[in-house]
Amino acid sequence: MATSVEEPGRLDEVPVAMPADEGAPEMADLSVQGIVELLLKNPARLDAINRDEQRSAVLIPRFLTIALACYALFCLSMILILNTAPAASYPQHAFPIRAPSWSWGSALGMVVAHNFGLIATTGICLPTFYFFALLAGVRLSMLQIVGQVLRCKTSSAVFLVGILPIYVAVTLGFSVFNAPARWLELWLYAGLILPFVAGLAGVHAMYHAIAGIAKTMPVEHRYRRECFLRRLTVSWAACYTAVAPVMIYRVWEQLAVQFG
Amino acid sequence: MAPSLFIYFLIGISVTVAVFVANGTRRTAGPFFMVAFTVPFWPFFIPLLLAGRLPASVNPSSPESPGPCTDELSATIDQVDRELDRALSGLDEWAPEVMARHKNLPHELHQAWTARSERIDEIDRLLGSLDYPAPCVGGERPTNPPRVAAITESLAKRLERIHQLRRENIEQLRQIRRYAYEDLMARLAWVRELVSMIHMAKFSGAPASRAGELLSQIAAAAEGLSELAAKEESGVWRRILSSGIVKELSELTW
Question: What is the complex's ipTM, to 2 decimals?
Answer without folding.
Answer: 0.70
